[in-house]
Write a structure and sequence with these properties.
heterodimer, A: about 270 residues, mainly alpha, about 0% strand, globular, B: about 270 residues
């Protein structure tokens, strides 16, 4: 891996790139807030006929969506369609990466954390505060909350791993856009973006627990909303650790294989 | 007019041919686009399955709402793609090139970057719509309401994307996220009956942007429902007018923005 400094530099640059477009970030708050309102009202309406379901009360559902819409951009559920590894491979810009003393995987990870930190300081508090103003709900204070930063950090690692795997398909094909959309759609469905996994039918729930996607959004969000504790929490965190490590291994493998195949044009 | 439509089809087929150069990629992306919308409907199914109904609406009825809005928005997303990305053409100066051609600007912008794979979107919306209509055993009169709603939705979303493009003349695209609220957000919100939303929210998507006229009211008429929300019974009849007004507003705003356009030259 070499020295850590270039990675910190990449993280810093990713942070600054986001910070350049201030207005875009504020309109983004409006988008997240709108979806928070839709999701929360829909689930509240479903709850209207019954007091609780799957051990959830209506306010848990609201809190879940307040947390998920706040953290969507921090975790990176949607890719950057213009600036990503797949595009760098497609255009051949990747050669300048190869001159740098970093691994591609390390760079992806560093950029994810830089971007995540920016949104954690700006977007997340704004969306959460807007949700609080409407519904007046705060996460229940409990000792498990202390594990939230760990879970969030792991979710960014899993997210970076998924994007890296999708992007590196561009080593073999002419573009990785199809793979990126595939990740978006599986991630939103099996990661619990629209519906908390607790309401899923047994088989789908089982699938979600086995695959990496719940490690991105569901685990940290359910933890924050107070819906994970005891054995379920331990499983969630372990699941995140295992998948973060597995995707890192896969990523490094794809990197070495891909680079061996890489041909860029020019002198 | 006929000439203009021929031109639109010509440009669209050029786009199609260029995208078919990478056949495998095209097939894969179309399949994934299809899947993306399945993942849109899946949450509705998951929730309806768990809770049984939403304010009296069961899954087939919810699927009807979804199918209507997905078909409308899908059609607009495919045929008016250029208006969605309009900011980019404005910033890159592509608009100047279009202005030089002696053809309808609206049709040229609409067909710019025609994305054939998105046809899967319309297909998926239609499949859901047809299945929902079949499951609900809708009669001819109900089907007419559904058709009217879908057409109204097309007009309504067309108005919204044109309005968004018009705003690009003034804001240079900083507001494009707000357009996404009305299009992607609006179609997400309208996959559920409007009656479940809080008063102010309901008013915003009925009178602010007449999206509720595109699927909710026609669906009420099609299903023969009278809602508890206390809407006048005649409201579905207003649908075509509200949706056409929205489209007219969008076209007028776009024309106005265009008159003010001075290119980027020195």
């Amino acid at each position: 891996m070499g020295s850590l400094r270039p990675y910190l530099q990449f993280a810093r640059l990713a942070f600054q790139r986001r910070a350049t477009y201030r207005l875009a970030n504020w309109t983004g708050v409006a988008v997240n807030f709108f979806f928070l309102l839709v999701h929360a009202q829909v689930l509240l309406a479903f709850f209207r006929a019954r007091g609780d379901a799957a051990g959830w009360r209506p306010q848990d559902a609201v809190l879940y969506f307040a947390a998920s819409e706040s953290l969507l951009m921090v975790i990176g559920i949607f890719p950057d369609w213009r600036f990503n590894l797949g595009e760098r491979i497609r255009t051949g810009e990747i050669v300048s990466d190869l001159l740098r003393p970093v691994t591609l995987y390390g760079r992806e990870l560093a950029e994810r954390y830089g971007t995540g930190l920016y949104y954690l300081l700006t977007r997340a508090p704004a969306v959460f505060a807007a949700g609080w103003l409407v519904y007046g709900l705060l996460p229940p204070l409990r000792w498990e909350l202390a594990l939230f930063p760990v879970s969030l950090a792991l979710s960014l690692a899993v997210s970076a791993g998924l994007w890296f795997a999708a992007c590196s398909s561009a080593f073999w094909r002419e573009s990785s856009n199809a793979e990126l959309s595939a990740i978006v759609f599986v991630n939103s469905f099996l990661g619990g973006v629209f519906v908390p996994l607790d309401f899923y039918p047994e088989t789908l729930r089982w699938l979600a627990d086995a695959l990496p996607f719940r490690a991105t959004l569901y685990t940290p969000v359910a933890l924050l909303a107070g819906r994970l504790s005891g054995g379920a929490l331990a499983f969630g965190l372990l699941h995140q650790v295992v998948w973060a490590a597995a995707l890192a291994t896969l990523g490094r493998l794809l990197e070495t294989r891909g680079l061996r195949r890489l041909v860029t044009q020019g002198g | 007019m006929l000439d203009a439509i021929r031109l639109y089809l010509h440009m669209a087929s050029a786009g199609l041919r260029s995208q078919m150069q990478y056949r495998g990629s095209f097939a894969l992306r179309s399949a994934i686009d299809f899947g993306v919308i399945v993942s849109d409907l899946a949450p509705v199914w998951v929730l309806a399955r768990y809770f049984g109904h939403l304010d009296g609406w069961r899954f087939p009825e919810l699927a009807l709402l979804y199918g209507m809005v997905a078909t409308s928005w899908g059609t607009v997303e495919v045929t008016l793609r250029g208006f969605e990305n309009f900011t980019v053409y404005l910033l890159r100066g592509d608009l100047d090139r279009l202005l030089l051609r002696p053809r309808s600007l609206i049709l040229q912008v609409a067909a710019y970057e025609f994305e054939a794979r998105k046809l899967a979107r319309i297909a998926q919306g239609l499949v859901v719509l047809v299945l929902a209509c079949a499951a609900l055993r809708l009669g001819p009169e109900s089907l007419a309401w559904v058709g009217l709603g879908v057409l109204g939705g097309i007009a309504c979303f067309a108005g919204v994307v044109m309005l968004g493009a018009a705003s690009a003349f003034y804001t240079l695209g900083e507001a494009s996220e707000l357009q996404n609220i009305l299009t992607y957000g609006g179609s997400a919100a309208l996959s559920y009956p409007v009656s479940i939303y809080a008063d102010w929210f309901r008013r915003a998507i009925t009178w602010g942007v007449p999206l509720a006229f595109a699927n909710y009211f026609p669906a009420l008429a099609a299903l023969g429902r009278t809602e508890s929300a206390g809407w006048p019974v005649a409201l579905p009849w207003l649908s075509p007018f509200a949706c056409l007004a929205c489209m007219g507003l969008g076209m007028a705003a776009f024309a106005r923005g265009l008159r003010r356009y001075e290119s980027t030259g020195s």
